[in-house]
Amino acid sequence: MDRKELINHFSKEVTDIAYWQTMTEKRYAHRTLVAFNTDWNAFVCYCQNIQASPLPAKVQTVERFIASMAPTRKLASLKRYIITIRLVHRTLALTDPCSHTQIRLLMQGYHEEKQDDSKQAEGLHADHISRLLLAFESSPNIKDIRDLAIWTVAFDGLLKRSELSNICVDDVKIDDDGFVTIQLDNKQLNLSEVTSTAFTRWLSEGLIADGYVFRRIDRHGNIGEKPLDHSSIYRVFRRAGDELGVSSKVIFSGQSPRVGAAQDLANEGATLNEIQSQGRWKSPAMPAQYIGQNSKRDKEMDKFKKDTPWDND
Fold first, then answer.
1. What is the three-class DSSP state of 140?
2. Which segments of 158-229 does DSSP mark as H helices, in order?
């Protein structure tokens, strides 16, 4: 598919993720492309409503779109819209309206206005895990047992929320010494001794013999069959912050174990490539951000405006 065909497809609502895969040369994960698609379609719908062209978009069109979304969206969402609009224009070798001073000043204003809602997830580190183990490894409470398993497994494996919620009993192997191996797609995750102990205790105490491993527990202590959703996982990690007594300015979320584990690995001397491999990131951009290598992150994020097949057309 050539550049002109892609421009035609992206000038209206995109209904097939395959177009994104073609345009970005499959450099992004499927979930990321779905998010891009949602944001782009929101912009396209807005343009259709005001009878403006989304591609190429005028600076004033982007400005009006962001202003229309700002009252009901957080700063992170507004930034994501800008990233998506910029990505489509630059990758298709069109003038990027988001690079205009007018848009930069607009976003700077929203950053100052909405900065309190843009707190990033803090890292959950090895010392946090040690303190949680000390507090809960002997607890008879079923929720404590489950949450401790979640905290340790997510940290040990640098797990994404989706990976955590999708673990099934069929993915788990326990050797004769009690060490646990979890199959994640085409990769194996070998858990440490303390994490294996917390994990197998949850399987035993929760009577988890098949289906999803990590499940909801109601107020009466009854364990359901459906997996934890992202909101439930978020609450589990917010609880970790509460139990640790961290500052109210520190926000633990489902991303926190990946952030903290990446930072701990960097402090132990691991290279960015090693961290990327261990965390199964397709690009080094996010782990680079987590460990403070912002220049590397920016370089990786900038790749999509370079070296596309039609740059020399």
1. coil
2. 161-166, 193-205
Instruction: Round the CA-based radius of gyration of the chain to a whole number and report it.
Output: 22
How large is the average pLDDT for residues 167-186? Answer: 94
Domains of the chain and any CATH numbers: 3-114 (1.10.150.130), 126-295 (1.10.443.10)
pTM (predicted TM-score): 0.61
Average pLDDT over residues 224-243: 91
Nearest to 110 by CA among 135, 146, 79: 79
Calpha distance 292→312 (Å, rounded): 34
Q: For residues 46 and 54, what is the distance between their CA atoms, to the nearest angstrom?
A: 9
- The four Cα atoms 232, 171, 263, 274 give a dihedral, to 10 degrees, of -150
Token pair of 272, please? 């960015």
Predicted confidence at residue 248, as pLDDT, reads 67
For position 26, what pLDDT does the model report? 85
Q: Identify the residue whose tokens are 């996010």.
A: 286
